[in-house]
Amino acid sequence: MQPRIVSGSAGPDSNPAHRDDIDWLRAIAVLAVTGFHFEAPAIFGGFVGVDIFFVISGYLITGIIASEIAAGRFSFARFYERRVRRLLPALYVMVALTAIPASHDLLSSERAEFLRAAAAVVTFTSNLFFWQQAGYFDHAAVEKPLLHTWSLAVEEQFYLVLPVAVWAVLRIARGRRLVLPLTLGGLALAAFASAVILMREGASATAFFMSPARAWEFLLGSLVAVSALPAPRAGLVQQAARGLSLLLMAVPIFALRPGPGFPGVNALAPCLGAALFLWSGTGIADVPRHRLSPLNVAAFVGRISYSLYLWHWPIFAFARFAKPGLALDGSERIALFALTVVVSYLSWRFVERPFRTKAIAPTPRAVFGLAAAASVLLLLGAGAGLMLNGSTSEADRAAQRLDAYNSYDMKPVYRYGSCFTTPDGRVPDDCLRLVAGKTNILLWGDSFAAHYYHGLTASLDAESVNIMQASQPTCMPTFSAETQGVASCRAFASQMRDYFAQARPDLVVMSADWLENARPPRFDGMVRDLRQTLARLHDAGIPVVLLGPSVQFRTRLPSMLARATLRGVTPDPETFTRSDIFALDQAMQAALPTGEGVSYLSILSAVCEQRRCPLTVGGAPLSFDHAHLTAEGSDYVMAKVAPLLRPSVTEFSSRQHADDRAHQAGGEGARDD
Question: Cα–Cα distance between 158 and 54 in angstroms, integer?
Answer without folding.
Answer: 10
